[in-house]
């Protein structure tokens, strides 16, 4: 089905967004889920840590009164992704948006990284993003009202490495940028937009644990705003990108780095 793309396509009142990587207590995913619930979305919080994400979803549903479910899934495994979407189809309103936040870092240098670690980093960050897009996009197309896809790369893809993650992670996140552009080009005919965000240093635990004040100071040295970002600041951008207001924004890479990279 190809939509009439000469006009803005509204979403149904009841619609679902899937947020991967929502299991970590100090991660961006949980802030995104909370923000989107407040914006009226039904939310699927997904993560490889099933018990953690199910507990979070139950708490958020009780607090907000919204429809929220937690789904444990290894996004790099096709069978696991298929099973997760079967459950989503059975329990949730139509899917209108996908936010791919799940990923794993790699602190290994180019001379140290093994083929096994390389494959794992590529599988989760790259293939996992692809599998989630494929499953969600098919349902968006069937729904007939378009949709939104937001993927997560990193400014590491621009730098070739950072304060914690190095070559493997940089390569995987650069691949996510290319994947996003391909999705935007190929899925646009169905009214589906695809964009990618590139966070800079954000105050989460993905960079080798909780950031100390000394580490924050070091990471802020080349940032015009002179601080690291907060997960809520990333969530605000994602909320816009999955909204109807972003209907003509697609194929775009947006840095969330306090002005560290300007273009």
TrEMBL record:
Q: Which family does it belong to?
A: Belongs to the short-chain dehydrogenases/reductases (SDR) family.
Tagged with keyword 4Fe-4S: no
Protein name (record): Short-chain dehydrogenase
Annotated InterPro entries = KR_dom, NAD(P)-bd_dom_sf, SDR_fam
Q: Which residues form the Ketoreductase domain?
A: 15-205
Tell me the organism.
Brachybacterium alimentarium
Q: Report the GO molecular function annotations.
A: oxidoreductase activity, acting on the CH-OH group of donors, NAD or NADP as acceptor
Which keywords label this protein?
Oxidoreductase
Gene3D superfamilies, per the entry: NAD(P)-binding Rossmann-like Domain (3.40.50.720)
